[in-house]
Amino acid sequence: MSISLENIAGEIIARAGDTRRFLVAIAGPPGAGKSTLAENVAKALQARGESAEVLPMDGFHMDNAVLIEKGLLKRKGVPESFDVRAFLDIVKAVRAADQEVLVPVFDRSRELAIASARIVSPEHRFIVIEGNYLLFSQGKWAELEGVFDYSIMLAPPIEVLEERLWARWRGYDLDEEAAGAKVYGNDLPNGRLILENRRQADVTIDIVQD
Question: What is the tens place of the pLDDT at every residue in 60-119?
């Protein structure tokens, strides 16, 4: 289904009622548009007079040196290439809403996470958390079940994901062979894994309307 940004923001506010802290999960495969939607949802909430911040899961990528040691560098982005325990701890701290929480942010141009790069304040009522594995049903990721107050699964058709992923990696000046290796050797297999092993979301959409 498709849905407008205004409808998403309205539904989130309606569900939140007078709650002090409300966690929104935006999950989906690589190339689905999670980070763009998360930023736009936060802006839409702010435009309605609400306080909102985005918490990206990508900040919890293991460092490349660790991935090399584990033999996972070429599969960066698979479930086991993230520091899931640290992510779970941060989400629990954010859930409590009783202190300032510093969270890491991933710099894709340098392929590394920057520690303590964003502040989640107790004054932020809505926290929009985005990432591949928020609704993943396997491993420690399953411990996130029941944590989020509202969840959105982005699930565009595979051909749309493929097109977006090619555009992403070409945008980083990779040649065709290197870009193809990223798309077909890693991102699309990860995407299929996510789509085939997901918990039920409150809403699943393929297209977000402006």
Answer: 999 999 999 999 998 999 999 999 999 999 999 999 999 999 999 999 888 889 999 999
Which strands, in side-by-side order, build the sheet including 126-131?
52-56, 126-131, 22-27, 150-154, 203-205
Select from 45, 23, 53 the least CA-distant residue to 150: 23
Sign of CA dihedral 102, 107, 113, 115: negative
The domain spans of the chain are 5-205
Q: How far is it, in rounded angstroms, from Cα 90 to Cα 112?
A: 18
Listed residue (146, 105, 99) closest to 123, CA to CA = 99
Residue 207: which residues within 8 A CB-CB, separation 6 or more? Answer: 2, 156
3-state secondary structure of 3: strand
134 within 8 A of 148, measured Cβ to Cβ: yes
Residue 181: CA atoms inside 13 Å, Cβ hemisphere, count? 8
Phi, psi values for residue 21, rounded to 5°: -135, 130
Can you give the pTM of this predicted structure? 0.94
Tell me which residue of 197, 72, 46 sits closest to 133, measured CA to CA. Answer: 197
**CATH class for domain 5-205?**
alpha beta
Question: Which of these, 23, 50, 206, lies nearest to 130 by C-alpha position?
Answer: 23
Residue carrying structure tokens 């107050």: 149
